[in-house]
């Protein structure tokens, strides 16, 4: 007879957590996967094992009886499993990051984290969508905004400045740029929203309908690449252009800079920050951000 240990253990964790969402976080699977396993176990037993409440789930009489039978064995298994792990740092830590931030800032630094914390299994989920940290198997997300995320804790990392950059050959061959309005003599490169040039020129007293013209890119990394290849001027966050500025494939078209009102935040549930396995990553990324441009 095949014993569905995964379903039984899932049932055990849900009972202990009192919530399918919390169990999903603990097991690093989706809430939908938890629900499916519980449904399969209920079909096997031929009766409901949980009743849903506003706070989560409560075992039925049959569920309570099953939990009483399997609780001690699974607790003993967990105790044995923990003997080989110094602390929670050995479990996988999942971090959701925007692709542009991942490639432009985080990726070059991850080697340092791996050397400093070899026991932490770090998984980077690079996706433009906004993950739901309350229901998905993700520990942290790095988000760009004002830091207001109801029900979540947010730790400020940095507020990069906006700078105007272009390829050296393009700037040598084109007209001189002495003030923001002079940028309009060049092709302008945009991000997906096409808002930055308009706001920047308005802030500098040079509004123009030409500010929205030109190529746009869905990823800021591609925007920087297009500028380095001489396709136009880009108004970008300084952290994304740092490597190209150092290599000389880009240079600043103007020395002034425009600090953004938005910042990058490390966001997660309060319990995620409290977990010992996550503290190494939290401390590391805050220290790295503190050494980056755009930090007061």
UniProtKB/TrEMBL annotation:
UniProt record similarity statement: Belongs to the LysR transcriptional regulatory family.
Source organism per UniProt: Massilia rubra
Keywords linked to the UniProt accession: DNA-binding, Transcription, Transcription regulation
InterPro entries: LysR-type_TF_proteobact-type, LysR_HTH_N, LysR_subst-bd, WH-like_DNA-bd_sf, WH_DNA-bd_sf
Lineage: Bacteria, Pseudomonadati, Pseudomonadota, Betaproteobacteria, Burkholderiales
Protein name: LysR family transcriptional regulator
Limits of the HTH lysR-type domain: 3-60
The keyword Transcription is assigned to this record: yes
